[in-house]
Amino acid sequence: MRIKTLAITALALVGLAVPASAGAKTTLIGSGSVAAQPVLQALFKTYETQVNKNIKFTYTADGGNAGIKDVQNGTSQFAGQARTPLPSDAGTTYIKLYLDGLCIDVNPKNKLTNISIQNLHDIYRGILTSWSQIGGSGLETTIDPVGRDTNGGPYTFFLQSVLNNEPPASNVNALTADGLVVNAVKQDPNAIGYAGLAWQKKGLKPVKVEGKTCEAKNISVEPLKYPLSRYIFIVLPTENPSPAVQKFVDWARTSPLAGETINKAGGVAAFNKKK
Predict the structure, then answer these.
(1) pTM reported for the whole predicted model
(2) In 86, 161, 207, 240, which residue has its Cα 20 to 30 A from 119's Cα atom?
């Protein structure tokens, strides 16, 4: 199975973009990660308006796992992904783009400030079902766990990092997008959910995991600081990837402007040069 992961070395692909005819734009088609959508859309806009005005991006946020299938079957030139490669990703190349954290959120009416990985595991496996079983919540009500559906990379990341590859319990409300997860938590005092850094908005209460806050200064994989730190990847077909997409990826990983864009949009730049 051919799955490649590119880590630190930038792609030497300057000058390979397919030239557009006069007045025409080259459209680059992507799909995948909802978690990465706010950062990717910000990168697309910056690239289109400040780097190469002959490029236009079309991106469908159908979930990272769905995006990989799109790349494999040729309907997308690239995919955003929020989990590491799996054997089922044959024929794709993973490129680390930036860092992110999977934040654990509760409703502001919940007094909880910190949670362990073990308690998270037990909640999403249906072992702990009442907030009275979780110290510090101030609640006696039934826990309403919210998560992502199987199309999403965060589902797989959470499965691997928290659930030890055990399936979530039947009481977990599996939703199709990070935005739906955070909205569910905002509206339900008994809810707990998970979503990426870029989706942390007003009306949510992110809690510490193992004593570490989900914020940019703690997001690190090597070494691991916040326990649910992760890379966001761009995934390309291993055979005949688009030179124009490769040029964009090289810019997004190395450019100081791209680094600023990533940080402002809610990600954590990992490889970008600084001004």
Answers:
(1) 0.88
(2) 86
